[in-house]
Amino acid sequence: MQQSHQSARAAARGSAILNVMIDAAGKTGRNLVRHFHDIDSLQVSRKSPADFVTEADRRAEKILFETLLKARPNFNFLMEERGAVAGSDVSNRWIIDPLDGTLNFLHGLPHFAVSIALERDGELFAGVVYEPVSNQMFWAERGQGAFLNGRRLRVSARRDFSEALFSTGIPFMGQDGHELFVEQLKRVMGVSAGVRRFGSAALDLAYVAAGRYDGFWEQGLNSWDVAAGIVLVREAGGMVTDFSNRNQKLLDKGEILATNSELHNQLRKLVKGT
């Protein structure tokens, strides 16, 4: 794992800020993997009916926060557990999720990620999503493209909706929107090759950027779930909007739709039911 993230860092060495992000993601990911192999010993608490937080979440967030703070002491933060932490640099804000896919982690499913985004002057500027168990480091910077361990990424070029594979997220127990989601799922499944639900929005978006999925949609999301992934998809040539086809202020919407340009409008209409 150390070698993988060092290779990613070397490939991105033209950008100092990406090096900071990749180093922080790698350090946090290594800590998560150690806990992943000793899940039974972790303390777990419940934030809401199906939203859990573990000792691993808190430790990972502490590592991520302290690593980024040391590298850029004046930046602002938005974090899942600690919330907002103000810095003196009004232009730059880290948006981080140290463990996206907590429920997978708790059940021994090796599908979870560290997500780090940098927002600059109100616009998403850079993103890193690290899948530590499989050593996959996704990164992107505005205007510089998206990469996986040094390999350039492009969204899929698929045009035929009947051949397309999509991913989504299911609303948690206790959240609104279950009936709406079922209707969306029926409409998309009826005309596509399939829909997958793996439990990490950050990785869903990274996989869209890599062309593994042809698209992704979900509602009820938080900023830290999607900020890094939005950068990845855009830099891989994809489209990211809300369900009404707006691409501004996506972090405030709680809903997202990401695809290539060929499938975007059809998926949007199916999700909207229009």
Write a short abstract of this structure.
The protein has 8 helices and 15 strands. By secondary structure, the chain is α+β, with helices and mostly antiparallel strands. It folds into 2 domains: 151 residues, Fructose-1,6-Bisphosphatase, Chain A, domain 1 (2-Layer Sandwich), CATH 3.30.540; 112 residues, D-Maltodextrin-Binding Protein, domain 2.
- How many structural domains? 2
Shape: globular
Regarding CATH, which class of the largest domain?
Answer: Alpha Beta
Main sheet record: 8 strands, mixed
**Percent in strands:** 25-35%
Helical amount among residues, as a percent range?
Answer: 25-40%
| CATH fold assignment of the largest domain | Fructose-1,6-Bisphosphatase, Chain A, domain 1
Report on this model:
The chain has 274 residues and is an alpha+beta fold. It folds into two domains: 2-152, Fructose-1,6-Bisphosphatase, Chain A, domain 1; 161-272, D-Maltodextrin-Binding Protein, domain 2, CATH 3.40.190. The protein is built from eight helices and 15 strands. The strands form three sheets. An eight-stranded mixed β-sheet has the order 4-3-5-6-7-8-9-10, sandwiched between helices. A hairpin with a 2-residue loop joins β1 (44-48) and β2 (51-54). α1 (2-11) runs antiparallel to α2 (16-36) and α5 (178-189) packs across α8. It is globular. The protein starts with a helix and ends with a helix.
